[in-house]
Amino acid sequence: MSASAIPEMNGGLESHVTVQKRAYYSPPWADVSIIGVAGSSGSGKSTLSQAIVKKLNLPWVDSFYKTLTPEQSKMAFANEHDFDSPDAIDFDVLVEKLRDLKAGRRAEIPVYSFAKHARLDHTTSIYSPHVLVLEGIFALYDPRVIELLDMGIYCEADADTCLSRRLVRDVRERGRDIEGIIKQWFGFVKPNFEKFVEPQRKVADLIVPRGIENRVALDMMVQFVEKKLFEKSRHHREALSRLEAASKDSALSDRVVVLNDTRQLKFMNTILQDIDTDPEDFIFYFDRLASLIIEQALNNAHFEAKKIITPQGYEYKGLVPTGEVCAVIVLRGGSAFEPALRKTIPDCRTGRLLIQSDYSTGEPELHYLRLPDDIASQQSVLLLDTQMATGGAALMAVQVLVDHGVQQDRIVLATYSAGKVGLHRLTSVFPEITVVVCNMLDYQQERWVEKRYFRFNIGGRVGIGITG
Q1: Most exposed: 139, 220, 318, 399, by fewest CB within 10 Å?
Q2: What CATH topology corresponds to 3-19+252-453?
Q3: Which residues form the Phosphoribulokinase/uridine kinase domain (predicted)?
Q4: Which three-class secondary structure string do you get for 106-164?
Q5: Cα–Cα distance, 132 to 155 (Å, whole number)
């Protein structure tokens, strides 16, 4: 049983919910652009990929070798295992991960150690890239991979250059001896290049001779990526504008809970909004008000009925939570809720995400993410932020939780103030979430709570240091 079925416990929510057509929202990472970079071993594809990654701060993946059997591992240490054959690559896992990323889902990328000739126990999590670089000798080999690529690049260099680069790399980075490298080159690398790698040249969109030294080709690729990023940003902003226009005439969701405007609440709001209030008083009364908001949010968490026997022997029909509650703090404003959260739920597990608006376009962008590993199994997830104006950041924050397996009806957004436009926009896309707000505004208001709470001003777009 959820709290929505218990009218007396949820601060005024009706026992029924208005059914409304869900609007559509797609985050900018929902259709990630993937660039494939293929070429012979030593052709400069890794250096070229790293140059693109460095210029544009993009994620880069290349670790999809199959796990070796004990016999294959023994052969690998003797330089007798063929790593330059398509059979060495786990294309099924590669395609699965690329499809996850293409759909906007988080992907766990395997990590391969060439020194140990084995996959490591840990993985690398990739989530929300706008553009991804896939690099490897067989990046353009599998038709399933080619279908997912937005651009295919083939790097080429003469054989002597490739061999010299491979010698330097394998000695420095992979701990191999020169004799073993040359043995692999003539036994596996060169024959497989002619048989499997060179034919990929025919399906490439761009052929790059001389690798990183080819500045013209590098600039072309960077311009292509920048164009893709600009298009994604423009489409995202247009989608947000359409959502705002479509939600203006719609009724406010029944799942928006506004705190009762009691005399005590008005008193605390007066202190908080008075420009002459001392910082110490502001923090004290905001903490009190934040506690009320969090307690109201917990009223909308999931409960189930339970009968207990009191010390006097009477039966009491009560409620218990159906599972654990965790919180996700939207930095930086949501941090102002932490003292109240710790007082209300001392052992509450927390996650963090940082969403900032681009200074030039106003588009919300996800910059940092750390969530509890089992957040999808939590019965209730509190999403905490001090203010919501247009709802763009809140939309993205809820989408992140949904992408990580959290069901909509388990999310409760708790905020001090929210504009009606933002509330309409958010609940039209996610009609099953609950929003608890202290002050609902008819106009958009600049963020001011965290500036006063943390007692220093932040101007423009700044970086936030995150610890703990």
Answers
A1: 318
A2: Rossmann fold (3.40.50)
A3: 34-216
A4: CEEEEEEECCCCEEEEEEEEECCCCEEEEECCCCCCCHHHHHHCCEEEEEECCHHHHHH
A5: 18
Paired sense of beta strands 411-419 and 118-126, if any: unpaired
- Please provide the DSSP assignment of 327-344 as one string: EEEEETGGGGGHHHHHHH
Contact 285, 279 (CB under 8 A): no
CATH fold for domain 33-235: Rossmann fold (3.40.50)
Digit-coded pLDDT (tens) for 35-58: 888 887 767 777 777 777 776 655
The predicted-structure confidence for 132-158, as pLDDT tens digits, reads as follows 888 888 889 999 999 999 889 888 877
> Is residue 450 a contact partner of residue 416, using CB atoms and an 8 Å limit?
no
What values do phi and psi take at 403, rounded to 5?
-60, -25
For the chain, the domains span 3-19+252-453, 33-235
Tell me the C-alpha distance between 296 and 11, whole Å. 7
Distance CA 338, CA 308 (A): 32
Q: Residue 245: which H helix or E strand, with range?
A: helix 215-247
Contact by Cβ (8 Å): 232, 130: yes
Q: How far apart are CA 201 and CA 324, in angstroms?
A: 54
Angstrom distance (rounded) from CA 325 to CA 339: 17
Report DSSP state, residue 97: H
Asked whether this chain's domains 3-19+252-453 and 33-235 adopt the same fold, the reply is yes
State how far the Cα of 86 lies from the Cα of 197, in Å rounded to an integer.
Answer: 9
DSSP string, 58-73: --EE---BPPPPHHHH
85-135 confidence digits (pLDDT tens): 788 888 898 899 888 888 877 888 888 776 777 777 777 777 777 788 888
Among candidates 94, 77, 166, which has minimal Cα distance to 132?
A: 94
